[in-house]
Amino acid sequence: MTSAIKNYFNDVGVLSLFIARFFKELFIPRYEFKEFLKQCYKIGYKSIPLVAITGFIMGLVLTLQSRPTLVSFGAESWLPGMVALSLIREIAPVITALICAGKIASGIGAELGSMKVTEQIDAMEVAAINPFKYLVVTRVLATTLMVPLLVVLADVIGVFGGYMGVNIHGDMSLYLYITKVFDILTFSDLLPATIKTFFFGFFIGIIGCYKGFNANSGTESVGVAANSAVVTASLSIFIIDMLAVQLTDLLF
Amino acid sequence: MVAQQTLNNSTEDKNPVIEINNLHKTFGADNHVLKGINLTLNKGEDLVVLGKSGTGKSITIKCIVGLIKGDEGEIKVLGQDIMNLNTKELNKIRVKVGFLFQSAALYDSMSVRENLDFTLRRHNADISEEEITSEIEEVLESVGLAEAIDKMPSELSGGMRKRIGLARTLILKPEIILYDEPTTGLDTVTSKEISELILSIQKERKTSSIIITHDMACAKLTADRILILKEGVVYTEGTYEELEKSEDEWVRSFFI
Ligand SMILES: Nc1ncnc2c1ncn2[C@@H]1O[C@H](COP(=O)(O)OP(=O)(O)O)[C@@H](O)[C@H]1O
Ligand SMILES: [Mg+2]
User: Fold this and answer.
1) What is the structure's pLDDT at B9?
2) Which superfamily, per CATH, for B2-104+175-255?
3) Å from CA of A140 to ligand 1 middle
4) The predicted structure's pLDDT at residue B14
5) Contact criterion met (CB < 8 Å) for A115 and B108
6) Does the C-beta of B25 come closer than 6 Å to ligand 1?
7) CA-proximal residue: ligand 1, atom 20 (nearest)
8) Residue of the nearest CA to atom 7 in ligand 1?
9) Contact check, Cβ <8 Å, B101/A119
10) How large a percentage of chain A has pLDDT more than 70?
């Protein structure tokens, strides 16, 4: 038990050093711009279908689930606004980030883990190429920028899913629906929700890289790296969300 | 003539490219792997290192390039004490020391061309595209695999992977090459081809090499001198012919 606690704090310490190294290497040339774009494509573009489908379903289901309660209060006209609010403030960012933790953090963990195990990272090192810069900085930047964009996509598609949900029972024009959404939605809903997604993206990337980069030798450790990347990234998303919401509560 | 000979010998003796003195390395609490390695590699020499699995051969050459940090002792590469260099200074040495991994360690996600391009481009900031192409073609030619240029590593056989791995280190024009079991896992014919390639590279490029191997055919062909490691120290050294006829039965057992 004590050794588990010791390991945990050790892990946190090493991860902090890893993060510090990221910020140190971020500003030193050479910039691996091509690899960064490639990772944006892989991380962002390739996740669009998954995020779009889940976004749509979240909007649709949330509407169908909320409708009976609002109807019983005679507040059915609040439905579009309420759904949009919960989607944009909480559900789309968190669910999208969790999906990205599952898809992206595990992918990065497995990729870098297998590069580590097959000595490809060592090969860069002995060729005097900085593997941290090429592999870690590019991937973390890509997730930090792509996860927020994917969340925005999930927001938009989720709101559209809500519109479909409303029209299962009633008949509302898209124009009216969107007017109702923006009646309720304000800038102070959008801003904190968007800011926290950058942190989600950053931690998805850095934890995936950290787990892969520090994989032990032996092929089974690739699976371990991928798995613990997902678990740690998911947990960190909830923790960041909790902190972000409390902070928002104080400030706005 | 005789005088000149001795003069040549003595200058060669004073021209070591790698010197290791009393190198120690312990993993964890009590896994004392290297227990005072002493090793010298002279300029232009092919030094073969023999020893049972787990005696610390790979660890020794990984210490030479700073992949693993020794606990105690001294390692001089091309006159520089690499145990006390910062990353930038160490990288300057690393460019001059090629390292062929046992697994070849090709970058899986890149084609053969990209493997070489990736390495070359990062050390020659203002090289033109034509020069890159011609350097890549030339180095592939010299390892006899010009036709593999657009293949992915997964499409290559074990022997081809070793050749490409070698091409990837040669493209930086190293002065020293460290080979970790270059022929292990290959069939006899391919092993012989790789051994001949190692020899021809040393002849053409005047490199100095350390070759870790269990393959006595490879050792016989390439070795100017052989070193045998046992339990973390250098047990004995000599030429192939000397060690083959050694009094020591354990030493002779390598040559069967
Ligand atoms: N990264 C490592 N961590 C812990 N122990 C290691 C590590 N690498 C090697 N060792 C230990 O060092 C010993 C020697 O390894 P190595 O130099 O690879 O042997 P070989 O002579 O077969 O190349 C191994 O048996 C192992 O116990
Ligand atoms: Mg070995």
Assistant:
1) 46
2) P-loop containing nucleotide triphosphate hydrolases (3.40.50.300)
3) 32
4) 56
5) yes
6) no
7) B54
8) B27
9) yes
10) 100
3-state secondary structure of B169: helix
Distance of CA B216 to the CA centre of its chain: 16
Q: What is the mean pLDDT of residues A55-82?
A: 92
Contact B95 A127 (CB under 8 A): yes
Q: Where are the domains of chain B?
A: 2-104+175-255
As a whole number of angstroms, the distance between CA B19 and CA A194 comes to 57
Closest CA to B98 of B143, B153, B152, B35: B143
Average pLDDT over residues B138-148: 94
Cβ-defined contact of A126 to B99 (cutoff 8 Å) = yes
In this prediction, the answer to ipTM > 0.85 reads yes
User: Cβ–Cβ contacts within 10 Å for residue B85, how many?
Assistant: 16
On the CB side of B154, CA atoms within 13 Å amount to 3
Residues of A in contact with B92 (CB under 8 A): 128
Both tokens of residue B44?
């232009």
Residue B63 Cβ < 6 Å to ligand 1: no
Q: Where are the alpha helices (DSSP H) in A27-118?
A: 33-43, 48-72, 79-86, 92-100, 106-117
Cα distances (Å, whole numbers) of residue B12 to A89, B5, B6, B37, B75 = 74, 11, 10, 22, 19
Chain A residues whose CB is inside 8 A of the B125 CB are 30
B contact set with A (CB within 8 A): 62, 65, 67, 91-92, 94-95, 97, 99, 101, 103, 105-109, 118-119, 122-123, 125, 168-169, 172
Q: Which residues contact B221 (CB under 8 A, 6 or more apart)?
A: B192, B195, B196, B199
Secondary structure of residue A62 in the 3-state scheme? helix
Quick check: A241 and A94 in contact, CB under 8 A? Answer: yes
Tell if the CB–CB gap between B108 and A120 is shorter than 8 Å.
Answer: yes
Which ligand is closest to the CA of B181, given by its number? 2
Q: Tokens 């006595």 sit at which residue?
A: B216
Helix (H) / strand (E) element for B36: namely strand B31-42
- For the beta sheet containing B80-81, the strands, ordered from the edge strand earlier in sequence to the opposite edge, are B31-42, B16-27, B72-77, B80-81
CB-based contact B178:A122 (threshold 8 Å): no
Task: Measure CB to CB from residue B119 to each of A30, A122, A127 and give the nearest one.
Answer: A127
Q: Which of A30, A111, A123 sits opposite B105 (nearest CB)?
A: A123
Residue of A nearest to B121 (CA): A129
Q: What is the DSSP letter of A244?
A: H
A227, amino acid identity = N
Ligand 1 centroid to residue B72 C-alpha, Å:
17
Q: Residue A92: which of A65, A53, A145, A66 has the closest Cα? A: A53
Residue A100: CB atoms within 10 A of its CB come to 31
Q: Is the pLDDT confidence value at B7 over 50? A: no
How confident is residue B13, by pLDDT bands cut at 50, 70 and 90? low
Interatomic CA distance for residues A148 and A160, integer angstroms: 18
